[in-house]
Design brief:
The complex is a heterodimer of chains A (about 110) and B (about 110). With about 110 residues, chain A is mainly β. Chain A is globular, with a radius of gyration of 13 Å. In chain B, strands 2, 4, 5, 6, 9, 10 and 11 form a seven-stranded mixed sheet that branches. The chains are: A mainly beta (about 110), B mainly beta (about 110). At the A-B interface, β5, β6 and β11 of A face β4, β5 and β10 of B.
């Protein structure tokens, strides 16, 4: 079945550092890929998405590129802020299914 | 508009007790989903309502879990009797269509069974 693998956390960075959170997936067909973010005390929010190979999703300074050849969708940000501290979930939705498959989540802690 | 509301936000119960979680979706959202995240693991799908009907309950772990959505508005998820492995965060989400882009999640209920 479909699965999503994320790097273990927590990821601890200083403000303005470069961020990469790795995500790889296994799926049949051509899934849509997502990153969700959960800020403390809040629900999951859709951060960005990509629906086909080589698409780049972007939002709030975060980017991720759908790489079919490496089955990856790594999340990047050039300069993180304290307010980016949250848990980030990679997810996919396979063709014909409306139910997303989530990864384990990666906690990001940004220090001033 | 109000978001998806879940309560309680936290619940601590003893093994063998009963707990009922509630989710109020966004008004007008016919689709309602329950998910669970056990500590440090993936967010797992539990079930999906379309209005008051269960569209897909393939993720429900066992018959100790009972979900209802009477009248197609709010939903409850009852765990009876609770076991230690039921501890985790229970999320609810709602959407207007069955697709994956328009989900709105609640902030979750953290359930601890001791």
């Amino acid at each position: 079945g479909d699965s999503v693998t994320q790097m273990e956390g927590p990821v601890t960075l200083s403000e303005e550092a470069f961020l990469t959170i790795n995500c790889t997936y296994t799926a049949t067909g051509y899934p849509s890929l997502f990153w969700y973010v959960q800020y403390p005390g809040e629900g999951l929010q859709l951060l960005l998405k990509a629906t086909k190979a080589d698409d780049k999703g972007s939002n709030k300074g975060f980017e991720a590129t759908y790489r079919k050849e490496t089955t990856s969708f790594h999340l990047e940000k050039g300069s993180v802020q304290v307010s980016d501290s949250a848990v980030y979930f990679c997810a996919l939705r396979g063709g014909g299914s409306y139910i997303p498959t989530f990864g384990r989540g990666t906690s990001l802690i940004v220090h001033p | 508009e109000a978001g998806v509301t879940q309560f309680p936000s936290h619940s601590v119960i003893e093994k063998g007790q009963t707990v009922t979680l509630r989710c109020d979706p966004i008004s007008g959202h016919d689709n309602l989903y329950w998910y669970r995240r056990v500590m440090g693991k993936e967010i797992k799908f539990l079930l999906h309502f379309v209005k008051e009907s269960k569209q897909d309950e393939s993720g429900m772990p066992n018959n100790r879990f009972l979900a209802e959505r009477t009248g197609g508005t709010y939903s409850t998820l009852k765990v009876q009797p609770a076991e230690l492995e039921d501890s985790g965060v229970y999320f609810c989400a709602s959407s207007t269509t069955g697709g994956g882009y328009g989900y709105t999640f609640g902030s979750g209920t953290r359930l601890t069974v001791v």
